[in-house]
Prior knowledge:
Number of helices: 10
Strand content: 5-15%
Helix content: 40-55%
Number of strands: 7
Amino acid sequence: DTVHAAIDSGINFIDTAEGYRTSESVLGKALVGKRDQVILATKLSGDHSLEHMNQAIENSLRALGTDYIDLYQLHAPKPEYPIEQTMGGLLRLKEQGKIRYIGVSNFSAEQHAEALQYGHVDSSQPMYSMLVRTAGEAVLPFCESHGIGVIVHSPLAKGLLTGKYAQDHKFPEDDERSWMAAFQKERFANALSVAEKLKVWAEARDHTLVELAIAWTLANTAVTSCIVGAKTPEQVRQNAKAAQWVLTSEELQQIDQIQGDFRILNLHQ
């Protein structure tokens, strides 16, 4: 129902990954009869050996119930594997018609430049949000100047920009946020304090904090799209609505003033 609601709301880009447990197979079932209505993206999550890459693409195609992937991305850099070899493997998959475009995720500007020596990279997927702006310093400008589309992940900063957590919230042990630095004690409290101020600002304009977080991300000219998770059809509809809110330069300045100097350099450290 959630996937169908996304398509009905005008969302046509769906991102998943080999490493997201059963996500690919669940998505494959949801897209039966609707495959041609979406741009389907997945990622190579394991190692970058050619053997694993060739096995992983077959597994993804099977799980997703399709004979091609629109966008195949490297989930993260793997310096232990020569990027020349990795890009060569991706280009072969493209020649075979199994993938149409090549993307990377969580790459630095320098790693983008290195990959470009061996073939065109169509998209990049960095972490970027109002609270975590590091990608805006080098990665986004690099992508914009080299014609690389940017599909931002974590625009809600792993939930910090949802407005649904109190400072005493405890995440379960199997939730990655239970050990992430940004969700510990004083850091968590400071982030939620800033988020609350942003929430008040958004609500004064008849929008939610989630809508603000998405709209702010899309306001960057380097950003092509952003990936927002959703568990229910209602969340999907709210996310889609956010894309209609175009922030003015004055509003963007007001947001910066509310945040002041508060930034999270890395959610993990």
